[in-house]
Amino acid sequence: MSPVSRREVVRNNGDLVILVLAELIDHRGVMAVEIRELECFLVLADELHFGRTAERLYLSQSRVSQLLQSLERRIGGPLFERTSRRVALTPLGKEFLTSLRPAYAALERVVESAREYAASVKGKLRIGFQGAANQTVLSAVSEFQTRNPNCLIGVCELPLNDPFGALRRGEVDAAVVMLPVAEDDLVLGPVFSRQQQTLTVCTSHRLAARASIDAEELADETLIAIDGPAPRYWRQAQAPTQTPTGALIHRGPEVRTLQEGLSLIAAGRGGMLVCRSTAEHNRQWRGIVSVPISGLPESALGLVWRRGEDTPALKAFAGQLRDE
Description:
alpha/beta; five-stranded mixed β-sheet; 324 residues; four-stranded mixed β-sheet
């Protein structure tokens, strides 16, 4: 095929990668040109200086000369005019550069696309969460699915009184749970949604009309506790039995779900510590009110998973959660 007809093919079809690669394969079907030679030619065409080309490619100047000479032998003519003062493209070099540059860029895109596909997250990821999934979790799930269409992400609600059970049974790959988490077989990933705690009580409670309260005012109050397989330290954090200075807080009836707890609160059986967003979510409950409380650690959520099982999908979701 003549140079003129080759340009016609490029203009008419645009298959630059196929065209140039076809020209670089000899009659035995063997690639006649090294990719490194093409890369060296393109950089030298930009720099028109052997020293700077060698620096960009992390090669010696003699190696740059060897690669260029090898390419010129394969093509059958000089690509550069070289003197002691200047380096310039020959007419053949300009013709070759015109065809090669867009083809090489397209080839790079093909390789990068293949690399991204090979590294893409695939399969299925199951995420559990306690209570109502907050906006941070929902946004992370949505963005993860958009960025990783080859991985189906599913969510399910976890029991309030058993934050780690589904994870250990393999029913979910990761869980968004209320802190604290101190389990040897689990990894705590990103922590988020740090919020001030509130005391949720019935409207007739002595503290219900207050704008805010201090943790020491919980002395002699009754807090509804969480019953179930959750570790003792975790249940104690959700319903402490002492104020920060050690005053007694009475332990009230035990519940397994938040809805059970809200029902007992409305019946005047005690109060519960809940985060601000959960309190706002449950405003529709008649007969209860939530009062901000100071002097206690903030509530927070964390993503946890089984130690040693941080899959590419899980790493990607944890990263998305951190971004959110």
